[in-house]
Amino acid sequence: MRPASQKPLYRSVNTRTHGVRHGSCGAYRYERHSKDEKRALSTRGSMHSHQRHGLDYTPLFRFLLSKVGHPWSQVFSEANARLDRPDPVFWMVALHESDKQEYVRTDENSYYSGLWVDEAGLLQKVNPQLTPEHMTHFYDCCTQTFNGVVFAHALPRERWPVAASLGHDSVQN
Fold this sequence. Notes:
- This protein is an alpha/beta fold.
- It has a domain at 7-15 and 52-128.
- The protein is built from 6 helices and 9 strands.
- The strands form 3 sheets. It has a 4-stranded mixed sheet with strand order 4-5-8-9, with no helix packed on it. The protein has a 3-stranded mixed sheet with strand order 3-6-7.
């Protein structure tokens, strides 16, 4: 149990709003009551999906970025004590050289610096020089962030005037 003074490193988000989808919906209705389904052992298993919805780990990612240069064992023990499960830590932190990534996508519009544990056991950024200015904008429609800072959008494409597209020589006011 964590001390009362330490806040958890995750927060609950609303998943009951209109338009929120949670993975595969409705596929089972086409398989139900078939002979193959009745013979399968999976029908006798748990009815829980083992998927977790409605948790935002942004506080964890900010915590990990603030602990760059600190001993990994201390950082992990503190983070693990303030989480519901340890898995989200390893979305961002690589323990092996082969798992290192310069940046990690944690949400549809959120990117964070990739972290790794060096030979001395210290938490480090994979690429310390990577800043929002170095990031490319992946989609034109959305606002994207890198370590909580908004990317600079590419300049909007110049549109043709309506009159020019209709074949008129001049635009009248």
